[in-house]
Records
---
Amino acid sequence: GESDQNNASGGKKELTDEEKKAAAEKRAKKAEEKAKKKAANASAAAKKAAGKGDAPAAELDVTALDIRVGKIIEVWEHAESEKLWCEKISFGEGEPRQILSGLRHFYKKEEMEDRTVLVLCNLKKMNLGGVPSHGMVLCATNADHTAVEFVVPPEGAKLGERVMFEGLQGEPKPENQVAKKKILQKLAPDLKTDGDGVVVWKGIKSCTTAGPCLASKG
């Protein structure tokens, strides 16, 4: 009878192992399902977030850019680059900004000084050839970049005033967002001058308190 008992206990042990195995499998399956559910939720959340992100992207317009009237008050050559001018630009109030522009082949120093220009202000500060630059002076160019000219505010526009576009309202995006979401790269292709030399975005005219902005040479 002893051997029977052993067999029985052996059988029981086997059963226990089977049960353990089954329980482990059940747990694993449950965990897998939970993980799948979690992943599904995460992807749903991601889709939702993407959806949220898409809506503003679809509505993204030129008001995301902070374009202001500035005046070049100082110009000097970049020590390391024969393409770059270094400029100090005043916006009427606060500290002037240092901005670098690749315009040495297109403008002489005396043509730069005291010139009123349009500046894209909500760009992150970056180093160009080791020299900090905070912003971008806007210019118009032909298709093959052989001709470049400033786009300028009209006479009477106030230093520091923001350039708007007819019928569009909106606050400029923060600098880090402009960089991260490549906002300038998305908007720039539609920023042009029309047949009259007026700065437009998707055909919508730029405007200041003194009228539209123009390509300096028409």
---
Amino acid sequence: SISAALRLLATMAGQTIEGEIVREITLAIDTRYASIVVVPKPDEVNDSNMPRNLHNAAELFLRVGMVENAERVKDTTGRMLDMYADNPDGTTNVKIGQGCVCWTCGFCGLPKGGGDSKVAPPSSAAGKKNKIPKTSPGPCGNCGETDQTNYVRVTRKGMDDLPWIEAPPLTEEERKKKKDAELAAKRKEVEEQVKRALQERQKAGVTTCD
């Protein structure tokens, strides 16, 4: 069960594994993650090992050495928060729905096949507190896990909850355009570096051969 898995993680967090090379790992965990509340299942309500928010979740992953999971919490949650920080104007196309956190891989976001394609609500928009679905959370949008998952709520102090939002998957044409744009940007960067290097050599009085 999820409770058993979390108890194991909590136990691991307080232990040192013999022979393990201990490395100091620095990972900036945004304090905004604390505003995203983990919704416990009925049998987890009184479980003291249950992380109460995504900030707790990322810290727990780090304490047990599951760095990749902590980074995935950070990356997936950060993208969602950044979309709201940009103050959606109500015309941006996104996928919107009830977010989940996966304890197997650390992914935070819409479940696989979940979410509706809608326009993002402005971050200042008012609405009722999110009604948590009665169905089980998951499957995870990254690894497909169906059991070790929990719903999350994007809360705001003194204001209404926000839905989880994500950029919709790119089409094949959009992926090609993005790749071409990245290659063009990289080519331009290299050309600028070469240009600066030649200018520095000229300033130093070094001539180049044709």
